[in-house]
Recover the amino acids of this structure.
């Protein structure tokens, strides 16, 4: 059976794969894996690795975060969490760690994905999460960001992320400096 396209269906599919291999995978763990790994075979291989590591046969979100991500992946998760919570200190620490890791483009893409979901929820309401097929975890983050940033700031942030992304692709981007400046500007205008 091949993996479904939509993230929430793919997470349920991954839980089924884990059960077939003799492990129980929490939905939050499956969501995290699906968010980070697109390739079906990589998902299967990662599930095998996690099953072997889960002494009690239960694959949790914490186990996934500990074993399935490198330091850059953990720093990106920290940045996304800090942005969702409007934590300036958390965001600055994560940005420092990510900058040392290298390329800004994957970080831009991940932040764009979160901001897009939050912007749609802020502008269109709860039904947007279903229309975008956001997972429950992504929906929770989108709600949090919508409440902290509001529709006007989220719309401007989304437009600026698109501009930065296009500039990076065409070679005219400001790299980390531009992304960090945007992030600090947005955080300074957020509701806490």
């Amino acid at each position: 059976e091949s993996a479904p396209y939509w993230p929430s269906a793919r997470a349920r599919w991954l839980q089924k794969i884990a059960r077939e291999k003799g492990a129980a995978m929490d939905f939050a763990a499956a969501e995290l894996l699906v968010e980070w790994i697109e390739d079906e075979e990589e998902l299967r291989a990662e599930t095998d690795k996690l099953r072997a590591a889960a002494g009690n046969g239960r694959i949790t979100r914490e186990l996934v975060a500990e074993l399935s991500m490198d330091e850059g992946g953990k720093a990106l998760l920290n940045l996304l969490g800090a942005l969702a919570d409007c934590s300036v200190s958390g965001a600055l620490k994560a940005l420092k760690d990510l900058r040392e890791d290298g390329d800004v483009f994957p970080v831009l893409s991940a932040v764009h994905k979160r901001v897009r979901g939050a912007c749609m929820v802020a502008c269109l309401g709860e039904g947007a999460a279903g229309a975008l097929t956001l997972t429950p975890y992504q929906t929770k983050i989108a709600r949090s960001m919508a409440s902290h940033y509001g529709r006007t700031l989220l719309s401007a942030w989304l437009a600026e992320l698109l501009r930065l992304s296009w500039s990076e692709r065409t070679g005219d981007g400001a790299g980390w400096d531009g992304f960090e400046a945007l992030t600090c500007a947005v955080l300074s205008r957020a509701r806490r």
The longest strand covers residues 24-25. The CA atoms of residues 75 and 97 lie 6 Å apart.
